[in-house]
What we know:
The protein has 284 residues and is an alpha/beta fold. It has 2 domains: 30-115, Leucine Dehydrogenase, chain A, domain 1 (Rossmann fold, 3-Layer(aba) Sandwich); 141-264, Rossmann fold (3-Layer(aba) Sandwich), CATH 3.40.50.720. The protein contains 10 helices and 11 strands. The strands form 3 sheets. Strands 1-11-8-7-5-6 form a 6-stranded parallel β-sheet. Strands 3-2-4 form a 3-stranded parallel β-sheet, sandwiched between helices. A two-stranded antiparallel sheet has the order 9-10. α6 crosses α7. The longest helix is centred in the N-terminal third of the chain and has 21 residues, at 8-28. The termini are far apart.
Amino acid sequence: MSANIIDGKAVSEKLLQNLKQEIVTRSKQGIRHPSLAVILLGSDPASSIYVRNKRLACEKIGVKSVAYDLPVTTSEKDLITLIETLNDDANIDGILVQSPLPDNINKDVIFETILPYKDVDGFHPKNIGLLALKQPQLRSCTPFGVIKLIEATQLPTQGLDAIVVGASNNVGRPMALELLLKGCTVTICQRYTQNLQQKIELADIVVAARGKPEFIKGHWIKPGAIVIDIGINRLDDGKLVGDVEFDVAKTRASFITPVPGGVGPMTVATLMENTLLAQKLFAQ
């Protein structure tokens, strides 16, 4: 067998077009376009590309993007002051601080400084807590995007065994909560997990967020499983690969995401959805 490829670009494009139409409709009703403040510290090439893609998505669908490109030497105090100013700005619906941050800045402090109702990345403890309580509002973008990709397969998820490889606060943990909401029985694995291969072999859904190239071997995949690869790793020869051994896994899975072109576009699209949602729920 050969897996169906879940085209993240196509799924994200459909979502963006729907968001654009809704923004146009709201604009005709006299409602201002939603606005997103994007803060970038330094000139890390990967971060710069991510921020550029987010700003292009804003332009594409009619979200006002307000750019704050700061030097890498920016202090934590100065960054907090900027965020607090944006918190108080009624014309700013969402605030995004691009990760990773310089070593002198505590990312947890920064994420908690952003008001929960402007936290369009979905990283604030309150937003993670609402997801845990089955009351999601602004959801972590990558896990939320993964759910939309799984929904695109049109396969029922209730009762399926799902495994999340990776337990970060921003991806792995909220991913497990999202899968619980979909009715899955969820196992979350981290560095101390034993017998990882045996656990993956039993999973109907595998979500890989380990951050290590081809860490999950293709022959571990249960025949017919759905495989979502969040990882994106650049090899010495410049090739981009995921956390799953794609060429082998695709001969066993029923659906699988490519790298690149799978989860990445969905993260940007769900960020746009969160920005519009923040305006709809909280703008005065």
